[in-house]
């Protein structure tokens, strides 16, 4: 099965606008080009540093870049009220000697500059293509979150991520600064909070107040808002150990008010302070005391997680909250408030391929565009489990691909159904596949350019095709053998008779497929009613024009970066008994560094996930190659989230790119 036509990237002569990510609302070319080698007279009342960095500025130049600030009504792009967030719409007009940016705000000018940066990069900084672009976001909030309370991310790494993600119009960094493991925000009033003795992980690592202010200014230059969070009263073991009392106590509440005042001073631009308050249990009285202080004494707005254990969220019960962040299946849009959709965006539970498809296909909480009650979406990295290094956090959580897939959906709007309805399957054909192919093409272009130094495990998957059987009953025996395993036909039949019953098969697409999703039937998988004690088979055929070595990314159980699960036993791919064959030869798993061990939260998750290890080296014949997977679904010991899934995709031997010049097909046809 050939890839869809739009999936080929890196073609010479492609229009620079074809690489824009997120995709703008409307573009038109006029055949001209604006040279970036010529001196430019810059007229910008907003003083955008991004524009200054793009051009050779000279007050006597004939060529001009002009910024026009107009009213929202005159700009005429879609917008809605969200406190703390300006109108981001812009119009961009490029001719041979003039570039005109029309926007309603400083932020709109920054968004236009970010588009110009992408257009310039597509020509290696030589020119801007002539034409017009009209653009604006469907949702005003498009963000990412790091839980640095658990897993510290260095200051320089955060700056790099903010710089790179802002180029794609990501506009919020939610900074979860405290958790059970550590209190990472410097308190000058209570320095014991930052002492190594009171940190369980990455001891002595925290952010100074001066660093917080510096990072906020750095983000603001790029049109990004930082939302700092001190989680209260739960997830606060580090606080309790340092102070000797809980956050909910009378002493604790007094300390929290001082800490909130320090937080507000360190983040002078932050329109919102986040107080968490989610799953550990609290009272409306506690929430109202803290949010009332934020409103009345600090003059700031406040965000809480939604739901809050033990508290009914409404504008009546919690009159001082200004926004909620919906998490888990229980999160619901609260009337009268803006809400952020974070319900299925916890990427610590994501696999690299299928979950990303689900997020890109999904609309944002059942809506095509934002409203005063639906602010947008945040991609959250809750890296509960310890990993060896911060680059492992970025890699195993597939940060860049997940954030940019979510952010483009937030910018473009649309999505035919919510993930609770549509699931995570890559369509085999149709408009949703074409749209995903186009996103993938553009993302992979930036993986090889702006993001080339970042640890990104994602490779092209739109052309991978599978046939998957109905599940055979195995009586709890993962080793039971069924007809697809013994069949000698090539290609394999679509239907099988077993014990007087016919078992069919169906087509699936993508490098990973969930037979049963992590969240069970809440997020649909390949089977509408998956059942334990069954075995499925999946296969594909791969045509290789030459005999060659390749890499294979293989995963039969994606290990969440939040679960204390037991690693596979030596010689096994997972704890369910899954097996993989290539051309009839069984592919054996790597040597697991934690083989058979239950990996608790403070022990390093090592090579359990494919993103943390080199691809398996395999050999392809010239011509057709058969891949067969056996996928039992049985009860497993030591694994809470028993993901019935598989990942298989062929890559270059270093794993950096999908293997070029091969064809995945469900039938074998003659090739010259």
Helix fraction bin: 10-25%
Oligomerization status of the protein chains: single chain
Strands of the largest sheet, in order across it?
A: 10-9-8-15-14-13-12-11
Total strand segments: 29
The chain-level mean pLDDT equals: 96
Which runs of at least 5 residues are low in confidence (pLDDT < 50)? 5-12
Gyration radius over CA? 26 Å
Shape: globular
Portion in beta strands: 15-25%
SS-based structural class?
Answer: alpha/beta
Question: How would you portray this structure in words?
Answer:
With 672 residues, this protein is α/β, with parallel strands linked by helices. The protein is 21% helix and 24% strand. It is built from 14 helices and 29 strands. An eight-stranded parallel sheet has the order 10-9-8-15-14-13-12-11. Strands 16, 17, 20, 22, 24, 25, 27 and 29 form an eight-stranded antiparallel sheet that branches. A hairpin with a 2-residue loop joins strand 24 (579-582) and strand 25. The model is unreliable at 5-12 (pLDDT under 50).
